[in-house]
Amino acid sequence: MKRWLTTLGLALCLSTVSLLAQTATPAAPAPLTEDVERTHNELRALRDGLVKATNDGNVDALLEFLHPNVVITWQNAEVSRGRDGVRAYLAKMTSGPNKVVKRFQTSPTVDELTILYGGDTGIAFGSSKDRFELNDGMSFDLTGRWSATMVKDNGRWMIASFHASSNLFDNPVLALATRSTMWAGVGGLVIGGLIVLVASALMRRKRRVPAV
User: Fold this and answer.
1) How far apart are CA 63 and CA 46, in angstroms?
2) By the 8 A CB rule, do 95 and 87 touch?
3) Could you tell me which of 38, 55, 172, 208 has the fewest CB atoms within 10 Å of its CB?
């Protein structure tokens, strides 16, 4: 009897483990239809062309991948509307005597396949590894997050909106600012200490000068 109960208990345990394994194993995704697969390939071509134009610094080529009414929120929280707005922003940031960015490189990845709505709208999101080289000689790498809405207009997929962001509490820009503030504070303490020492020395010297 005891042996039978032990065997039954082991069987129940194995059955439970088997059920848990089946639950934990996601079902295989349904195969994509030919039309959907073609759409995703068109979106991949859009992504690859956009990344190449960005990394090459080719603004004219980049704008061709953007819808005429595109809205972009950049990592510095500025917003550009339309192709002319994007061109003006990039000109301000990357060219001219007051440019901020000398060179920019990006390597984006998507979290999953674009979410399609009908045959002419899609939403994608993911992360990116960005390399910034600033005009003042500073450079840093930034891991960001992004989301984009694509629309198919006149037979072409284009970016209708794009939003880029980074971790507010943990990023290299914040680290650089914190480090600069720390060194500024140390410098202030050193200068203040030197002023106190010089003032004290002058006061002692003045007391030692005999009255006429």
Assistant:
1) 12
2) no
3) 208
Q: Kindly report the backbone phi and psi dihedral angles of residue 110, in degrees, each rounded to the nearest multiple of 5, phi listed first.
A: -100, 145
If you search the block for the tokens 């880029």, which residue do you land on?
164
Q: Rounded to whole angstroms, how far apart are CA atoms 188 and 180?
A: 12
Indicate the pTM of the whole model: 0.67
Report d(CA 144, CA 171) in Å as an integer: 9
Q: Which string of DSSP letters, residue by residue, matches 117-166?
A: ETTTEEEEEEEEEEEEEETTS-EEEEEEEEEEEEEEETTEEEEEEEEEEE
**Each residue's pLDDT tens digit, 31-78:** 779 899 999 999 999 999 999 999 999 999 999 999 999 999 998 899
Residue 205 backbone class (left: φ over 0; alpha: ψ -120 to 50; beta: rest):
alpha
Q: What's the one-letter identity of residue 174?
A: L
Domain boundaries, given as residue ranges, for the chain: 34-166, 169-201
Bridge partner residues of 125 (DSSP): 147
User: 34-166 domain in CATH 3.40.190.10?
Assistant: no
